[in-house]
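Q: what sequence does this backbone want?
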């Protein structure tokens, strides 16, 4: 029957011994009592020549002396739940079957995690695996420290649960659960006297014993006790407040970092407590939440008080990262989580786990907190946003890699609750999206804890009939990434702005455009004529349809025509010429259409100045360019309130933070080394292919053959669209005049990552490049990085012969026309990277 001795003979008889597979949990008053039963267990196991493993993580005294033949593993709980649980899982896997384990007291994990919830989670993932391998494992908990809920989860999972009392220098064991064993006296307390055991069956003796046992009615979670202590320190104005603030910040914000330093500088202990009071569960609130909160605090504490009266009140909740783990553990998916962390299962197991994450259930106490949050918001629309630990920090943006889900929040309480849960599941599942996995892998983050917290925000805006939306939304950069004219100050910042929800400013929308605003000259546009103004303007509006209870896309004229509370001319100009043309075409009773140009907003209000000052303030404090998301709402007098919904350091596209250009000496062997003439921000992008159109050969072609070159390029970029491509050629891409460049359509090059145009003074070919061209707006919308090379100018190095190092695959893709293959060269550029730094204003491709 595989019986195993506790090392206390009389107690073995009482509980009919332990069994292989048993997890044994001791509730103790002190560590010395636990050490006594551990010593008896280990000595007996050594006699029977069992392999014994000691898992050491606590700050308490060592349980097993070094002179015993016991293998010890030191595991750091301070590295976080996932690393701790993963390391223990791996060592259990490595040690194999029928091993005996002794764990330090689990209560000591509170020193690192401050969460009863996570101790319960660790036990629920560790215990079943130990049982599966037919081990016997000893654990301890300090009595009257943990919540009843934590004890209930452990009782449900373990095979044996025992109370160990020390009363008047006597020791008593009281079995509370002994799985699949029973005797008439098993669940009485038992006095332990060496190997002798006496069952306490007398009511008088039992009453006398339990009169010495401290039992409390309600046990507050350790995290809540910590917050209670913090509030008391605030009231007492105690000197210990600084230490408490740092302690809470490590638990809410994360390890020491540049973002942590900003938070420590600006947040008070009262601020940290206020954040904690809006957290559901425990754990980190994640990068997006931290970025939003610290940015708002920086603006609120502006010495000149320029912004406080213009900011919408903050009204968000945070679902702590511990809930993400709890959700996985509660639904029994930890094995899949471990499989996904392996090299073989990184992608394969991720898809299985992603599907499961969409189907799970939350614990009842978490569901209740979700419901209370939903009751707080009432029927106001909310957005459920990813806020992972790695997100929105210095070096890693994860922009667009994880989901954000609108909850229009209409219907019955149950319908609204079900929609909230579904949104949370969708965000959790997005951690296993292929794009997110690839992003983490490329940045060396595959094995780091990616703890998904969630930011829940009230959607900024108002009801307009059946629709809900803000007047203005968009993104802002403190450094202008797309300077289309040399007179523009790149340090003044820029906006990409839309009417309605900001989704159209954040995401690429086919055939629709955000308004690009240069904040030093907000009235300036890169457009050439009146028709461009209509073509490159926003034509549809993203909004929330309250009747349909969904995110919707509507025609601009349908939406703005119902805007009666504010002056719609702030945002749009009536196009009388288009109205006349429509009537000439026979359309009757149709109002003149609008062109969304934000002309009056940008020229007759201080809105662009305020955004410029906000961005400058944030960049100054961050000591780094920043990227924000914002909304704005106006009243009948054109007064406005701004809601800052996100802020992060301006990120590098590609492989995270760009290498310092100082490490690449001027004149180093490279394909391109240039200053200033690039647009798109910081870049650190490995290139798979470079498509290169040689200037001399192209310019010597007849006009018709130049059009043929353009069509071939379109076919080639479509074939390679899953790869990272740089397209480089003479003059202006997309020109209608073949003598000035290559006449491609934008649809033919929309899949490239980097677009490069070359002008050469010594070859007499100096057309105006795409600064200010029709193509410019499409480049911005498609998020294509742009480089202009003015060959022969100072600080510009361009060496086409550098490409001879790489494999020329032109004939493979252009074999049908050898003549074209001589003009369009395609190189497979394994190992080549293009790097750009907007602070150092230098770009290198090598």
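A:
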């Amino acid at each position: 029957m595989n019986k195993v001795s506790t090392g206390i003979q009389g107690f073995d008889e009482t509980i009919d011994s332990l069994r292989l597979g048993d997890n044994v949990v001791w509730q103790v008053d002190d560590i010395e009592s636990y050490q006594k039963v551990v010593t008896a267990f280990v000595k007996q196991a050594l006699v029977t020549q069992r392999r014994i493993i000691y898992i050491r993580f606590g700050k308490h005294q060592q349980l097993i002396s070094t002179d015993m033949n016991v293998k010890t593993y030191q595991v750091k709980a301070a590295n976080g739940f996932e690393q701790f649980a993963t390391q223990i899982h791996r060592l259990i896997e490595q040690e194999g079957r029928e091993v005996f384990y002794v764990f330090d007291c689990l209560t000591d994990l509170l020193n690192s995690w401050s969460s009863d919830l996570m101790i319960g989670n660790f036990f629920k993932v560790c215990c079943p695996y130990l049982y599966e391998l037919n081990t016997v494992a000893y654990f301890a908990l300090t009595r009257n420290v943990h919540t009843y809920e934590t004890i209930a989860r452990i009782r449900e999972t373990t095979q044996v649960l025992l109370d160990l009392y020390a009363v008047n220098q006597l020791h008593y064991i009281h079995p509370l659960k002994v799985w699949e064993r029973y005797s008439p006296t098993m669940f009485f307390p038992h006095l332990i006297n060496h190997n002798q055991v006496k069952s306490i069956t007398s009511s008088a003796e039992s009453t006398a014993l339990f009169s010495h046992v401290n039992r409390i009615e309600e046990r507050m979670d350790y995290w809540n006790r910590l917050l209670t202590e913090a509030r008391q320190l605030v009231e007492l104005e105690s000197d210990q407040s600084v230490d408490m603030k740092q302690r809470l910040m490590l638990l809410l914000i994360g390890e020491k970092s540049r973002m942590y330093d900003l938070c420590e500088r600006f947040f008070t202990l009262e601020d940290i407590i206020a954040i904690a009071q809006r957290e559901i569960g425990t754990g980190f609130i994640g990068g997006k939440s931290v970025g939003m909160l610290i940015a708002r605090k920086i603006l609120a504490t502006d010495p000149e008080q320029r912004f406080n009266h213009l900011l919408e009140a903050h009204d968000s909740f945070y679902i702590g990262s511990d809930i993400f783990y709890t959700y996985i553990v509660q639904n029994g998916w930890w094995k899949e989580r471990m499989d996904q962390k392996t090299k073989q299962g990184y992608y394969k197991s991720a898809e299985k786990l992603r599907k499961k994450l969409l189907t799970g259930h939350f614990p009842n106490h978490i569901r209740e907190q979700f419901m209370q949050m939903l009751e707080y918001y009432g029927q106001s629309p909310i957005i459920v946003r990813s806020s992972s630990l790695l997100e929105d920090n210095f070096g890693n943006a994860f922009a667009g890699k994880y989901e954000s889900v609108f909850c229009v929040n209409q219907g019955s309480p149950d319908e609204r609750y079900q929609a909230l849960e579904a949104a949370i599941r969708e965000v959790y599942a997005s951690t296993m999206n292929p794009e997110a996995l690839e992003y983490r892998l490329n940045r060396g983050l595959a094995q780091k804890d990616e703890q998904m917290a969630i930011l829940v925000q009230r959607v900024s805006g108002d009801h307009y009939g059946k629709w809900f939306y803000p007047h203005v939304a968009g993104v802002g950069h403190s450094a202008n990434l797309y300077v289309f004219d040399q007179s523009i100050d790149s340090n003044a910042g820029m906006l990409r702005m839309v009417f309605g929800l900001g989704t159209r400013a954040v995401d690429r929308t086919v055939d629709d455009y955000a308004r690009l605003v240069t904040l030093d000259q907000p009235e300036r546009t890169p457009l050439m004529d009146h028709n461009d103004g209509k073509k490159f303007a926003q034509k549809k509006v993203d909004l929330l349809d309250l009747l349909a209870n969904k995110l919707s896309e509507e025609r601009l004229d349908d939406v703005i025509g119902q805007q009666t509370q504010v002056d719609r001319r702030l945002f749009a100009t009536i196009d009388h010429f288009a109205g006349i043309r429509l009537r000439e075409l026979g359309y009757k009773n149709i109002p003149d259409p609008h062109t969304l140009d934000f002309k009056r907003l940008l020229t007759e209000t201080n809105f662009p100045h305020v955004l410029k000052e906000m961005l400058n303030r944030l960049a100054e404090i961050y000591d780094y360019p920043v990227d924000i998301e914002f909304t704005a709402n106006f009243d009948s007098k054109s007064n406005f309130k701004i809601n800052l919904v996100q802020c992060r350091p301006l990120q590098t596209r590609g492989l995270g933070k760009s290498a310092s250009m100082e490490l690449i000496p001027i004149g180093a062997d490279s394909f391109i080394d240039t200053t200033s003439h690039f647009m798109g921000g910081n870049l650190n992008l490995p290139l798979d292919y470079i498509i290169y159109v040689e200037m001399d050969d192209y310019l010597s072609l007849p006009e018709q053959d130049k059009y043929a070159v353009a069509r071939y390029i379109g076919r080639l970029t479509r074939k390679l669209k899953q790869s990272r491509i740089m397209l480089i050629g003479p003059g202006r891409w997309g020109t209608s005049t073949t003598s000035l460049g290559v006449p491609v359509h934008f649809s033919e090059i929309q899949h490239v990552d980097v677009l490069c145009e070359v002008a050469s003074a010594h070859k007499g070919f100096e057309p105006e490049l795409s600064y200010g061209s029709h193509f410019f707006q499409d480049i911005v919308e498609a998020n294509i990085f742009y480089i202009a090379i003015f060959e022969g100018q100072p600080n510009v190095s361009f060496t086409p012969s550098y490409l001879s190092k790489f494999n020329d695959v032109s004939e493979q893709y252009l074999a049908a026309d050898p003549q074209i293959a001589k003009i369009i060269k395609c190189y497979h550029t394994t190992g080549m990277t293009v790097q750009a730094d907007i602070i150092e204003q230098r770009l290198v491709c090598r």
